[in-house]
Design goal:
The chain is mostly helical. It is 83% helix and 2% strand. Among the domains are: 30 residues; 56 residues, no CATH class. Helix 1 runs antiparallel to helix 2. The protein starts with a helix and ends with a helix.
Length: 192
């Protein structure tokens, strides 16, 4: 049997050991609670970090989608602008071509107007000459007509028929255009 002293020592040490054990258990429990609290905090932070990562990924994907949408919108706008510019260039070419055609039409009308005015002036001049010829004797009218028709060469080129005294305007005529007499017989009669 153990001695009494040993018993009390043992009892003291056991009590002391239990106290220490209780203290150690409390410390261990406290540390375990702290570890659990840290673990919960780490898990919470991990969840928050994961949520932030998901949000960041979502925002990136949203930004990429918006960027893609913006890029697509810009490409569509650029394509529309190019198409409109091409249409405007075609319209401008068409209008320039049409303007050239209208200028040509206007020039043609101007040419027609100038030609018509010139023809009218000639007709008015001819009408005035005819009025003058009507006031002359037939011989004077024939001479004036030949002079008007052939100019200064009319005096050189014209001859008078010996038979009807009509004007033969061109020396190439063999017969008188008025009476039909032969000019060669007339020349032969003049030489004799």
């Amino acid at each position: 049997m153990p001695r009494k002293k040993d018993f009390w020592e043992l009892a003291d040490s056991t009590i002391l050991g239990r106290t220490k054990k209780n203290e150690l258990l409390q410390i261990a429990r406290s540390e375990h609670q702290q570890v659990e609290a840290y673990r919960a905090q780490v898990e919470s932070q991990a969840k928050q970090f994961e949520a932030e990562n998901q949000l960041l990924t979502h925002l990136r994907s949203q930004l990429d989608k918006e960027g893609e949408v913006h890029r697509q919108v810009l490409e569509d706008l650029l394509e529309t602008f190019d198409e409109q510019q091409h249409n405007h260039e075609q319209e401008l070419d068409r209008l320039q071509s049409e303007a050239k055609e209208w200028e040509k039409v206007a020039q043609d009308y101007e040419d027609v107007i100038v030609t018509q005015r010139s023809a009218m002036k000639e007709l008015i001049s001819l009408r005035e000459r005819i009025k003058l010829f009507a006031q002359m004797t037939p011989l004077q009218a024939g001479q004036a007509f030949a002079k008007w028709l052939f100019g200064s060469k009319a005096d050189e080129a014209s001859e008078y028929c010996s038979n009807c005294n009509g004007i033969i305007a061109a020396p190439e005529y063999r017969f008188c255009p008025h009476c039909g007499s032969d000019r060669q017989s007339f020349h032969a009669a003049q030489k004799a």
